[in-house]
TrEMBL record:
It comes from Antricoccus suffuscus. Pathway: Lipid metabolism. This is 1-acyl-sn-glycerol-3-phosphate acyltransferase. The chain crosses the membrane at residues 28-52. It holds the Pfam family Acyltransferase. GO terms for molecular function: 1-acylglycerol-3-phosphate O-acyltransferase activity. Residues 98-210 form the Phospholipid/glycerol acyltransferase domain. Keywords: Acyltransferase, Lipid biosynthesis, Lipid metabolism, Membrane, Transferase, Transmembrane, Transmembrane helix.
């Protein structure tokens, strides 16, 4: 049986958007040339390091280090800055298994998360067929998911659980698709089951794309029938853009009620991410949203309902 996966229409990226501060077309092409060259050079380095890793185990760590460097370089080329809220700049201590869940706005989301810490991504199956990028993602151990298949969702949940048991840091976008960023789509609970099955904490992460005036912008949104090229051109056309990353408190499966419930874990993550997004999303009142909008308005629960910070040593997290 197929699962319906609906993204926001292109209209949502244009309606209610804050000022885009677009640069001249020539500057866009210059930035595109720089971006393509960095991707090609990066791909050659990655494939070379992965080939060496077959005979020199230590090279695998170099791949992770280089990937973070490459992601930061790509963001700089796109004129995208990353601003991390709070005292944490990573999702977990090295070697600590955590399920990272974030709201999904753009193809930039994966690059932003990867620039902060090496993670095993769960990505939509289509990415595997993207030229060059798909091959790199596969080599790096990305878990590909067919979002329209119940059977593949179940398989991916099991694979993610094995990765978490092995101490991996697994990242996923529970909305299953992108939104314009002016709210949250429906979070699917399947991947939260992997955390519940393994007793692994969940790390909610909120991503907000802001323009040069620190106002929410949809310039980075990759939604509807928009092509990847259209989205890249929109990003490269901004004078500057900032991704605000709010790394939220950990949520343990034993903290929610019912204990270990994947739906309770999902709701706790939605509440936590919603609280972080609210200061930027609030100005987009519900009555201004087009009828086709898939991103639900943010509803922040009472403070007492939010999960408090809980950081455990890696030896206590299974």
């Amino acid at each position: 049986m197929a699962i319906s996966v609906t993204t926001c229409p292109d209209l949502c990226a244009r309606q209610g958007t804050t000022k885009r501060h677009e640069v001249a077309a020539f500057a866009v092409w210059v930035r595109l040339a720089a971006l393509v060259s960095r991707v090609l050079i990066g791909a050659m380095v990655i494939f070379a390091l992965l080939a060496l890793a077959r005979v020199i185990p230590v090279t695998r760590r170099l791949v992770s280090t280089y990937m973070r460097h490459l992601y930061k370089t790509l963001l700089k080329t796109c004129r995208v800055k990353v601003a991390v809220d709070g005292p944490r700049t990573t999702f977990a201590a090295p070697g600590t298994p955590v399920l990272v869940v974030a709201n999904h706005v753009s193809w930039l989301d994966v690059i932003v998360l990867g620039s902060l810490q090496s993670v095993t991504m769960i990505s939509k199956a289509e990415v595997e067929h993207w030229p060059l990028i798909g091959a790199i993602a596969a080599k790096l151990g990305t878990i590909f998911l067919d979002r329209t298949s119940y059977d593949d969702v179940a398989r991916t949940r099991v694979v993610a659980g094995h990765a978490l048991r092995g101490g991996a840091l697994v990242a996923t976008f529970p909305e299953g698709t992108t939104t314009c960023g002016r709210g949250l789509g429906d979070f699917r609970s399947a991947m939260f089951q992997a955390a519940a099955d393994t007793g692994t904490p969940v790390r909610p992460v909120a991503l907000s794309f802001l323009d040069r005036d620190a106002k929410l912008t949809t310039a980075a949104s990759f939604i509807g029938d928009m092509s990847l090229w259209d989205s890249i051109r929109s990003v490269l056309g901004q004078r500057e853009m900032t991704v605000r990353v709010s790394i939220r408190p950990l949520i343990m499966p034993t903290q929610v009620r019912p204990i270990g419930s994947r739906k309770a874990l999902r709701q706790a993550a939605v509440d936590s991410i919603g609280e972080a997004l609210a200061p930027y999303v609030d100005p987009y009142a519900e009555h201004r949203r087009p009828s086709t909008c898939q991103a639900r308005p943010i509803v922040v629960p009472e403070r007492d309902d939010l999960v408090a910070e809980l950081e455990l040593p890696s030896t206590l997290i299974g």
